Amino acid sequence: MAYDVSIVECRHYREQEVEHALREAIEKVDGFSVIRPGMRVALKVNLVRGQKPEVASTVHPEVVCALVRLIKERGALPIIGDSPGGIFSAPYVKAVYDITGMRRAEAFGGLLNDDYSVIQVHAPCAVKAKDFPCTGWLKNADVIIDVCKLKTHGMMGMSNAVKNFFGVIPGTSKPEFHYRFPKADDFADMLVDLYEYFSPVLCVCDAVIGMEGNGPTMGDPREIGCVLASSNGHAMDLVCADLIGMKPDGIPTLRSAIGRRLVSGNLSELKLYGHVDDFRVRDFRTVTAQSNVFFHILGDGVIGRTADFFAGRIFTPFPKLDADECVGCGKCASVCPAKVIAMKNGKPKIDRNRCIHCFCCQEFCPKGAMKVGKGLLLRLLG
Ligand code: SF4
Ligand code: SF4
After folding, report:
1. What is the pLDDT of residues 84-100, one digit of tens each?
2. The domain containing residue 325 runs over which residues?
3. What atom of ligand 1 comes closest to residue 331's alpha carbon?
């Protein structure tokens, strides 16, 4: 019997331990059956930024190396790639491969993607992203495997299987997407569109050490102690949300997937191999996703818009500067898609009335000085 999602203990990034756990996890969801000799297998790895493996913002190289060995065993060719935030070009991405430890995979026969082409895609079945630019290398693969990392995320609450597909958008186009889809639910619909368009045959999650707090790049590493596999990224996200104590309705991509009936919102309806209870981290430091508690019921007139304005202030998290940690580099101002950050006296000043709450400034701040501030109501509730 193939399970919907498997969860297997893996406490350390030791070569044999990781390979053993991944083999078991993938076998239990029948994930190897889709890989045939001679296939080009794209490993869409979360390499959000050039950070060392111990930072825990990217998939650990031991996980990628183990996957490469397992795919090579089946006579297929694993190709590793991603489009991190920044220019999708050889010098930039190769530096990310070096820093994140991906080069190690070459020793086991893995190829690091060196196709930096960008293509235009038309997706007629999409809800939001019917036309978008994407990295060409994925289109040349026979199958795609989604290799994600379990992390908190300022805008989306959680980054895992579905959020990983934002990496198909070339780095410099990402801010434009935040601007096109400023509301969390629209952005999440777009992410679900991307995931569904590419339809990875298998999702593998590195939850040996996840990231809590100020994720997805500047949080703190946190041991979770497992790896997961599934052929359905939405189902995997549902399980992972539970692992870190988040509810599906607090994660916009899961709300979208459940609304489209891509997964049931009820964990008990999934066939699970392994026990979530063995790995759940009860005090995992989560972040609240951008809220969409708007009072559209009051209409689009002055009353409705006024109510929306106050609801946004009360419920919605916002970027918040820790001036002591800020070194005044201006990176946040340069990545802000809404252009609402001005550098004043060497520190960023945000026009909150025009902020679209995308948290690019938080994601790309090299010092972790930009935090996720809680809306008024959440502050009052502690
Ligand atoms: S990116 Fe971070 S360190 Fe640089 S100016 Fe902005 S908040 Fe300060
Ligand atoms: S200030 Fe930060 S959160 Fe607001 S729009 Fe700019 S990058 Fe996004």
Report:
1. 988 899 999 999 999 99
2. 298-380
3. 1
